[in-house]
């Protein structure tokens, strides 16, 4: 371990290890197999990077996300450590050369996806490598009960046959007891030691706040402090709109979503990491592999799809050990939205059969053929041609991708982009004079908030449907509006490539997926139920609830979450009387809204609202339009 401490100081500048890092590294240096369960921000990557550097040879790292692989490779390069990632789009020649470098070129780390591991060339070259360690990142993907199950992860145990005797380490920040048992079973490793750090984060207050007006409550939470924060939303449109709203209120905010170009992503991320912009409004993909220690708040404006993803995202707050807050803002309208978004579009076996058959027909792939053929693909045209629903079809294609039937290019989200170069008033004047564009342009403005201020990627087929315009006419309109210098646009006729990984065999390809589809859908429903249960349980400490979900018991309440705070400040008779006096005092001079009352009275908002309800029941006050309260005569 002297060597481990030396490398920790030399490359990472730390004088000591975090809890659990040292025992994990010791076990790996003793050539033992380990499954490590560590909270988000616990320093998982060091656990395999340091023993790999100490020992002669190369470490193979299996990871599910290209962005995560690239982040880790870049971080190693900055430390002068040789590492590479086998990402998508590599030619056979490039792949051949890269694998040779891993055999002969003194590389210390090779990152690859579980799907890449299936290639014969990759397997043959791994046999020739001097491998000192195999690391499986995001190991919960191995388990069918895990929140990001990837069937290709089930084949990772092949590495055991390719490199017998090489120690394995699986790492995850989100594994329930059921998932842990499944990982151990699927890795098929003898004498694997499960080492678990407590998931408890004493410095994070987990809050669930009911808020009819989420933007108003968001402003209250941020409190003009301009501290580092992440605000999670569900859509690109929302990220742009909320960042714009916050900037107008004087905050320094930026939006981050999957539609940004890589250079723009790097620029925005750097500005946030350097505190040039304190607030990042982002879709849920943001944050993986990013270690910013001073994030004071993580706020979810939309409900998370699972407690695993929520725990990971909330865990990006307070990594410096200082006090931090993780808040879910919710109201009654969120529940049907959550169910519709994640349950309504779950594909059934018949949906998968239909889309698989149609995509083969679309590219004229003959029965028994098509393996390793690649095609340009317009998702919107495909859906339009066969009258397929967009959301469910997308879910089916993602499922076929996860199951290694097809491979969708990462440009799948590339769309037609539009940038208006006139102001809103100028646009209105032009539309008044040229009314044939009215329906089409109005559909654009309604669908994409912020499109007048920013270059925006659009789904042209969706806009055509909403405006009752065919695609040919829409493209003609865009061309004419560009000539009139109203907008600039780029038309992406093909928004993806599809690579067929297996020959077309219709039912014999799809039917083996039936158990996976059934289990996937069951698991999704259970995870949504767990989220709703967490939101509704206002009696048990929120930290306790989250820890119990991951199989960890804690005797004491955290004392800082929204449940604990409410229990510590009960609505006693004395408190009710004090609030009653304050309400009557205000309403004697003027009528007031509930917001004005809660802002003026220095008691918790839920307590003020409870007293308001009691006064309404006793008919001492009445509520008029606009939620305005007044004293009854």
Concise summary:
This is ATP-dependent DNA helicase RecQ. The chain is an alpha/beta fold and 633 residues long.
Count of discrete structural domains: 5
Look up the CATH topology of the largest domain.
Rossmann fold
Our estimate of the beta-strand percent is 15-25%
Q: Calculate the mean pLDDT score and round it.
A: 89
Distance between the termini: 79 Å
Per DSSP, the total helix count is 27
Shape: globular
| Rounded Rg | 27 Å
Give the helix proportion (percent range): 40-55%
EC number: 5.6.2.4
Keywords: ATP-binding, DNA-binding, Helicase, Hydrolase, Isomerase, Metal-binding, Nucleotide-binding
Domain Helicase C-terminal: 217-360
GO molecular function, one term: metal ion binding
How would you describe what is shown here?
- The protein is of the alpha/beta class.
- The protein has five domains: 2-196, P-loop containing nucleotide triphosphate hydrolases (Rossmann fold), CATH 3.40.50; 204-331, 3-Layer(aba) Sandwich (Rossmann fold), CATH 3.40.50.300; 342-412 and 496-523, Orthogonal Bundle (Arc Repressor Mutant, subunit A); 415-490; 569-631, Arc Repressor Mutant, subunit A, CATH 1.10.10.10.
- The chain has 27 helices and 22 strands.
- It comes from Salegentibacter holothuriorum.
- It catalyses: Couples ATP hydrolysis with the unwinding of duplex DNA by translocating in the 3'-5' direction.
- Residues 25-193 form the Helicase ATP-binding domain.
- Keywords: ATP-binding, DNA-binding, Helicase, Hydrolase, Isomerase, Metal-binding, Nucleotide-binding.
């Amino acid at each position: 371990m002297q060597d481990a401490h030396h490398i920790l100081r030399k490359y990472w500048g730390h004088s000591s290890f975090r809890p659990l890092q040292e025992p994990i590294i010791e076990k790996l240096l003793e050539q033992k197999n380990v499954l490590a369960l560590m909270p988000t921000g616990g320093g998982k990557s060091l656990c395999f990077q340091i023993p790999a550097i100490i020992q002669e040879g190369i470490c193979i790292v299996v990871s599910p996300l290209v962005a995560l692989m690239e982040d880790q490779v870049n971080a190693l390069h900055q430390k002068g450590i040789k590492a590479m990632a086998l990402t998508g789009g590599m030619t056979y020649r490039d792949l051949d050369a890269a694998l040779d470098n891993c055999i002969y070129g003194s590389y210390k780390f090779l990152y690859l996806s579980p799907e890449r591991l299936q290639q014969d060339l990759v397997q043959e070259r791994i046999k020739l490598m001097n491998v000192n360690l195999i690391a499986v990142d995001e190991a919960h993907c191995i388990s069918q009960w895990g929140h990001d199950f990837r069937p290709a992860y089930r084949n990772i145990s092949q590495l055991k046959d390719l490199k017998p005797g090489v120690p394995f380490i699986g790492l995850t920040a989100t594994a329930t007891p059921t998932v842990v048992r499944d990982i151990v079973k699927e890795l098929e490793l003898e004498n694997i030691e499960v080492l678990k750090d407590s998931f408890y984060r004493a410095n994070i207050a987990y809050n669930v706040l009911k808020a009819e007006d989420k933007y108003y409550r968001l402003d209250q939470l941020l409190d003009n402090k301009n501290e580092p924060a992440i605000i999670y939303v569900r859509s690109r449109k929302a990220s742009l709109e909320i960042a714009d709203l916050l900037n107008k209120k004087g905050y320094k905010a930026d939006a981050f979503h999957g539609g940004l170009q890589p250079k723009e992503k790097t620029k925005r991320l750097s500005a946030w990491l350097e505190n040039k912009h304190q607030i990042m409004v982002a879709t849920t993909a943001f944050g993986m592999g990013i270690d910013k220690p001073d994030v004071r708040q993580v706020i979810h404006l939309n409900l998370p799809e699972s407690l695993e993803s929520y725990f990971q995202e909330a865990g990006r707050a307070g990594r410096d050990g200082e006090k931090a807050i993780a808040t879910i803002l919710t109201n009654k309208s969120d529940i049907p939205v959550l169910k519709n978004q994640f349950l309504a579009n779950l594909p059934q076996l018949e949906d998968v059969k239909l889309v698989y058959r149609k995509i083969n027909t679309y590219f004229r792939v003959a029965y028994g053929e098509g393996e390793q053929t690649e095609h340009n693909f317009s998702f919107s045209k495909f859906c339009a041609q066969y009258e397929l629903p967009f959301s469910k079809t997308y879910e089916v294609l993602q499922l076929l991708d996860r199951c290694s039937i097809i491979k969708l290019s990462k440009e799948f989200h590339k769309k037609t982009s539009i940038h208006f170069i006139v102001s809103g008033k100028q646009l209105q004047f032009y539309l008044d004079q040229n009314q044939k564009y009215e329906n089409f342009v109005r559909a654009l403005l309604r669908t994409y908030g912020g499109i007048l201020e920013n270059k925006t990627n659009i789904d042209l087929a969706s806009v055509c449907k909403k405006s009752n315009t065919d695609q040919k006419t829409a493209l003609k309109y865009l061309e004419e509006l560009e000539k009139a210098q109203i907008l600039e646009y780029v038309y992406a006729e093909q928004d993806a490539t599809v690579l067929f990984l297996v020959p077309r065999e219709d039912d014999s390809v799809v039917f083996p997926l039936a158990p996976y589809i059934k289990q996937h859908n069951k698991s999704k429903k259970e995870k949504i139920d767990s989220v709703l249960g967490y939101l509704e349980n206002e009696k048990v400490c929120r930290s306790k609830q989250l820890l119990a979900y991951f199989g960890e018991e804690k005797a004491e309440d955290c004392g800082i979450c929204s449940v604990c705070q409410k229990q510590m400040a009960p609505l006693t008779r004395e408190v009710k009387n004090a609030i009653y006096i304050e309400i009557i005092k205000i309403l004697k001079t003027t009528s007031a809204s509930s917001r004005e009352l809660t802002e003026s009275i220095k008691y918790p908002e839920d307590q003020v609202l409870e007293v308001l309800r009691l006064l309404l029941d006793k008919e001492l006050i009445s509520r008029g339009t606009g939620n305005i309260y007044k004293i009854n005569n």
